[in-house]
Amino acid sequence: MKWNEVAKVRMKDLGMTQEKLSEHLGITPGAVSHWLNARRSPELEVIARILHILDIDEFKVDKNGSIFTSADFKNSSCTTKTINCYPLLSKELIINYVDDLGSNEADNFANEWIESGAVILGKGFWYKVEGDAMLSPTGFSVPSGSLVLFDMGRVPQEGDLILVMSKNNSELSFKKIQSDGHRRLLVPMNPRWPVDVITDEHRILAVAVESKLKLK
Hints:
Blueprint: H1 3-14, H2 18-25, H3 29-36, H4 44-53, E1 59-61, E2 67-69, E3 81-82, E4 84-87, H5 91-96, E5 113-116, E6 124-128, E7 147-151, E8 161-166, E9 172-180, E10 183-187, E11 196-197, E12 202-212
Antiparallel strand pairs: 1-2, 1-3, 4-5, 6-7, 7-12, 8-9, 8-12, 9-10, 10-11
């Protein structure tokens, strides 16, 4: 079943109207009607929020956009992927709990959790980018204010975007890792920013796997 079909069945079971759902979402009933009747397609994050309101917190989405709830998982296709929520951690939280990032201790202080269908191998968390180091004059960019999902379980490879902490001043850097002979470099997308050499004074925290920019 498509997500909107699952939602309508669940709304009927709960006795929830479109008006009530719109109140929970903080949008107009008309917008909800467009989504539920497949006249418009919301972002995956919005779908996850709607299903959460309807008490469906665990589901998978296949490549055709069909939804499988927990009751369907045993018979679901291997092409499905799980939608999970990860904490949005501030710079201060990451620095203060850097030795415990692999656990859930810092998560308790997160004010926001954001959905993603990305494959996370280790501990995952979101971080809001600060500064213009990854603002490229052409092509792909990760501008200041972007939300980036990091995976602590991945081994950094050439060209990966990584989050690094300086052991000396406890500053965070978000740059691309590149090799130059025997040296490993932190390379910004913005040519106005300096290239840094990775030394023993740097601690690689995680590899970026997804980015998004919220307008509101």
